[in-house]
């Protein structure tokens, strides 16, 4: 009987430790431009007295999926509704992320982080998304297809629910 109790205690301890949000190394390394965009958004939020956001595993996976989906299926007319007909909330739920506040910025044709960031900053709607005080997590992605006339597809997804953060 002592072995059964020890096993149950070990299982409960393991569950408690693994259930805690933790920073993990990204399973998908961000490229230099994606890292630059993360830094720009961090500095911009700080300059505008908004709380910092952490880089989210789930939101980054979802952003990568959306950028790839738009680059492949809607190269010249990217959309917030993906090729499976899902809006941001449904798509994020499929990636295991749910939040009361979800904001999503996309742009096509911006080759660099600086151009994508400036494009969003100049749009009142997208600028409000980047400066939303309720968001705590962010995911970023840039997908550039060789030979595509429309250029790089960027996605930034922001959400209010904390989850696993990517170490930077």
* Overall average pLDDT: 84
Order of the strands making up the biggest sheet: 2-4-5-3
The stretches of 5 or more residues where confidence is low (pLDDT under 50) are 3-26
Describe the main β-sheet briefly.
Answer: 4 strands, mixed
Overall form: globular
- The oligomeric state is single chain
Q: In which range does the helix fraction lie?
A: 40-55%
Span between N and C termini?
A: 46 Å
**Count of helix runs:** 6
Structural class assignment: alpha/beta
Topology order in helix (H) and strand (E) letters:
HEHEHHEHHEEE
Give the DSSP E fraction (strand runs of 2 or more residues): 15-25%
Rounded to the nearest angstrom, the radius of gyration is: 18 Å
How many individual β-strands? 6
Structure notes:
The chain is an alpha/beta fold and 168 residues long. 44% of the residues lie in helices and 17% in strands. It has 6 helices and 6 strands, in the order αβαβααβααβββ. A 4-stranded mixed sheet has the order 2-4-5-3, with helices on both faces. The longest helix is centred in the N-terminal third of the chain and has 18 residues, at 2-19. It is globular and about 40 Å long. The protein starts with a helix and ends with a strand.
């Amino acid at each position: 009987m002592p072995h059964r109790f020890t096993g149950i205690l070990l299982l409960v301890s393991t569950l408690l430790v693994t259930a805690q949000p933790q920073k993990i190394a990204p399973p998908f390394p961000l490229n230099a431009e994606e890292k630059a965009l993360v830094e720009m958004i961090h500095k911009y939020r700080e300059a505008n007295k908004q709380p910092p956001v952490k880089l989210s595993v789930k939101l980054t996976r979802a952003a990568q999926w959306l950028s790839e989906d738009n680059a492949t299926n809607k190269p010249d007319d990217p959309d917030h509704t993906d090729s499976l007909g899902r809006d941001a909330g449904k798509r994020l739920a499929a990636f295991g992320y749910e939040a009361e506040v979800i904001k999503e910025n996309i742009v096509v044709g911006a080759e660099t982080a600086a151009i994508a960031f400036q494009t969003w900053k100049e749009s009142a709607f997208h600028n409000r998304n980047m400066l939303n005080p309720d968001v705590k997590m962010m995911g970023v992605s840039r997908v550039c297809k060789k030979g595509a006339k429309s250029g790089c597809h960027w996605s930034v997804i922001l959400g209010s629910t904390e989850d696993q953060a990517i170490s930077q």
